[in-house]
C-alpha cells in the first residue's frame, strides 16, 4: 500500500483572489509581515502497490487533478500504513 | 431544427435552455441525460449552466471526464454547433474543446445581474443576426467566471477572431474582458453570460434570442433546400 500526497498550486502569475483575501485578513489580525498568500489543494491517495505508480500519478494529475493551464502539481509517494 | 440539451447531475439551467430553444425560438429540443445521451443526429448541442457535480475539484472538471465528452468531441469535429453557457463553458474549457481556464471572480463574490456585452465578432454561426459592435444586455450568474489564458493563447484568440463577446465593464477580472470565445473552427462557443435567460421582454431582455436565431438561420442556410 502506498500513500500518495499531491499538492496543487496556482502557477506563478495567475491571480489568486482567495489568497489575496486571506492575506488581507492576516494583515488585519496584525501579521503585517505577510506579503503574499497563495491558496492551493492537498490530496491524499491510498494506492495499491504498482510498479507503474509514478507514471499513473503523473497522468492523473495532468488529466484531472490539476488543470495545467492554471495549476502546477507535485507529489510524494510514501509507504502507506497497512491496517 | 433539433437541439439537444445535455443534463448533468447538478445542471440547473437546463430547463431555461430548453425553453429558449423550444418555446422562444420555436424549434425542437430534447433534454438528454448525460449517461444515456446519443448525440448523433442533433443539429446543435446545448450545454447548460449550473453546478455539475457540485463544482467539486474545479468547476466542470468532473463532468469533463464523462463519456459524453468523447461524443461531444466527435460532434465538434464534424462541425455540429455546440453552445456551452456558464458551467457549460467551464466544461468545454476543462475538456479541452476550448482554450483557457476559469478562476474565481476577482472580487470573490457570486455575481448575478445583467451585464452589457459587446458583440466583437458577428461573423459566426452564433452571432450572425447581431450587428458588429452591438451592445446587448444579458445576465451573468457565476462565481468562477474570471477567464484566464496565457499571452500566446490570447494572441491566437485575437488573430483568429475567436473572441465573440466582451464585457463593456469587466465584472470578474477576465483577461481582455472576455465573456465568450469560440474554437478555431468557429462551431463551438463558450460564454459565461446566459443568453437563454434573455429571450423575451418578460425576462427584462430579449437580446439573447438573436443568438439562437443566428444558429437557426445558419442551419436553414446549410441544410434546408430552397431556404
From TrEMBL, chain A:
Listed A to Z, the keywords are:
ATP-binding, Cytoplasm, Ligase, Nucleotide-binding, Purine biosynthesis
GO CC annotations, alphabetized: cytoplasm
Q: In which pathway does it act?
A: Purine metabolism; IMP biosynthesis via de novo pathway; 5-amino-1-(5-phospho-D-ribosyl)imidazole from N(2)-formyl-N(1)-(5-phospho-D-ribosyl)glycinamide: step 1/2
Localisation per UniProt entry? Cytoplasm
Top enzyme category = ligase
Coiled coil segments of this chain: none
Q: Name one GO biological process term.
A: 'de novo' IMP biosynthetic process
HAMAP family membership? PurS
Q: Does the keyword RNA-binding apply?
A: no
Q: Which GO terms describe its molecular function?
A: ATP binding; phosphoribosylformylglycinamidine synthase activity
- Stated family: Belongs to the PurS family.
Q: For this UniProt entry, what is the primary localization, expressed as one broad class?
A: cytoplasm
What is said about its interaction partners and assembly?
Part of the FGAM synthase complex composed of 1 PurL, 1 PurQ and 2 PurS subunits.
Q: What does this protein do?
A: Part of the phosphoribosylformylglycinamidine synthase complex involved in the purines biosynthetic pathway. Catalyzes the ATP-dependent conversion of formylglycinamide ribonucleotide (FGAR) and glutamine to yield formylglycinamidine ribonucleotide (FGAM) and glutamate. The FGAM synthase complex is composed of three subunits. PurQ produces an ammonia molecule by converting glutamine to glutamate. PurL transfers the ammonia molecule to FGAR to form FGAM in an ATP-dependent manner.
EC nos: 6.3.5.3
Name of the protein in question: Phosphoribosylformylglycinamidine synthase subunit PurS
The catalysed reaction is: N(2)-formyl-N(1)-(5-phospho-beta-D-ribosyl)glycinamide + L-glutamine + ATP + H2O = 2-formamido-N(1)-(5-O-phospho-beta-D-ribosyl)acetamidine + L-glutamate + ADP + phosphate + H(+)
Automatic annotation (TrEMBL), chain B:
Q: What is this protein called?
A: Phosphoribosylformylglycinamidine synthase subunit PurQ
Catalysed reaction, written as an equation: N(2)-formyl-N(1)-(5-phospho-beta-D-ribosyl)glycinamide + L-glutamine + ATP + H2O = 2-formamido-N(1)-(5-O-phospho-beta-D-ribosyl)acetamidine + L-glutamate + ADP + phosphate + H(+); L-glutamine + H2O = L-glutamate + NH4(+)
Q: In which pathway does it act?
A: Purine metabolism; IMP biosynthesis via de novo pathway; 5-amino-1-(5-phospho-D-ribosyl)imidazole from N(2)-formyl-N(1)-(5-phospho-D-ribosyl)glycinamide: step 1/2
Q: What is its main location?
A: cytoplasm
A GO molecular-function annotation: ATP binding
**What PROSITE patterns does the record tag this protein with?**
GATASE_TYPE_1
How is the subunit organization of this protein annotated in UniProt? Part of the FGAM synthase complex composed of 1 PurL, 1 PurQ and 2 PurS subunits.
Lineage summary: Bacteria, Bacillati, Bacillota, Bacilli, Bacillales
Q: What keywords is this UniProt entry annotated with?
A: ATP-binding, Cytoplasm, Glutamine amidotransferase, Hydrolase, Ligase, Nucleotide-binding, Purine biosynthesis
Q: Which CDD domains match?
A: GATase1_FGAR_AT
Organism, by scientific name, is Gracilibacillus dipsosauri
Q: Name one GO biological process term.
A: 'de novo' IMP biosynthetic process
Q: Cross-referenced PANTHER family, in alphabetical order?
A: PHOSPHORIBOSYLFORMYLGLYCINAMIDINE SYNTHASE SUBUNIT PURQ
Instruction: State which residue ranges cross the membrane.
Output: none
Active-site residues, record numbering mapped to chain: 86, 194, 196
| EC number of this enzyme | 6.3.5.3, 3.5.1.2
**Any single Gene Ontology cellular-component annotation:** cytoplasm
Q: Pfam families under this entry?
A: GATase_5
Protein function = Part of the phosphoribosylformylglycinamidine synthase complex involved in the purines biosynthetic pathway. Catalyzes the ATP-dependent conversion of formylglycinamide ribonucleotide (FGAR) and glutamine to yield formylglycinamidine ribonucleotide (FGAM) and glutamate. The FGAM synthase complex is composed of three subunits. PurQ produces an ammonia molecule by converting glutamine to glutamate. PurL transfers the ammonia molecule to FGAR to form FGAM in an ATP-dependent manner.
Where in the cell? Cytoplasm
Amino acid at each position: 500500500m502506498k500513500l500518495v500526497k499531491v499538492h496543487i498550486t496556482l502557477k506563478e502569475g495567475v491571480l489568486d483572489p482567495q489568497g489575496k483575501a486571506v492575506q488581507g485578513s492576516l494583515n488585519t489580525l496584525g501579521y503585517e509581515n505577510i506579503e503574499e498568500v497563495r491558496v492551493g489543494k492537498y490530496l491524499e491517495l491510498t494506492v495499491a502497490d504498482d510498479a507503474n505508480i509514478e507514471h499513473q500519478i503523473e497522468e492523473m494529475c495532468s488529466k484531472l487533478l490539476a488543470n495545467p493551464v492554471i495549476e502546477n502539481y507535485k507529489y510524494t509517494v510514501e509507504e502507506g500504513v497497512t491496517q | 431544427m433539433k437541439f439537444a440539451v445535455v443534463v448533468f447531475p447538478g445542471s440547473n439551467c437546463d430547463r431555461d435552455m430548453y425553453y429558449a430553444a423550444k418555446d422562444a425560438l420555436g424549434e425542437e429540443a430534447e433534454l438528454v441525460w448525460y449517461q444515456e445521451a446519443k448525440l448523433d443526429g442533433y443539429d446543435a448541442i446545448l450545454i447548460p449552466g449550473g453546478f455539475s457535480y457540485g463544482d467539486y475539484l474545479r468547476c466542470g472538471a468532473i463532468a469533463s471526464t464523462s463519456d459524453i465528452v468523447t461524443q461531444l468531441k466527435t460532434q465538434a469535429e464534424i462541425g455540429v454547433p455546440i453552445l456551452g453557457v456558464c458551467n457549460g463553458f467551464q466544461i468545454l474549457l476543462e475538456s479541452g474543446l476550448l482554450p483557457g481556464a476559469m478562476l474565481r471572480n476577482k472580487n470573490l463574490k457570486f455575481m448575478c445581474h445583467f451585464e452589457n456585452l459587446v458583440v466583437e465578432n458577428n461573423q459566426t454561426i452564433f452571432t450572425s443576426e447581431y450587428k458588429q459592435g452591438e451592445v446587448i444586455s444579458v445576465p451573468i450568474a457565476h462565481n468562477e467566471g474570471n477567464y484566464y489564458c496565457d499571452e500566446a493563447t490570447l494572441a491566437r484568440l485575437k488573430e483568429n477572431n475567436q473572441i465573440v463577446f466582451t464585457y463593456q465593464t469587466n465584472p470578474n477580472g477576465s483577461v481582455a474582458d472576455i465573456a465568450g470565445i469560440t474554437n478555431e473552427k468557429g462551431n463551438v462557443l463558450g460564454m459565461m453570460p446566459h443568453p437563454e435567460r434573455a429571450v423575451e421582454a418578460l425576462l427584462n431582455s430579449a437580446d439573447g434570442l438573436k443568438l439562437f436565431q443566428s444558429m437557426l438561420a445558419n442551419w436553414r442556410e446549410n441544410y434546408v433546400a430552397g431556404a
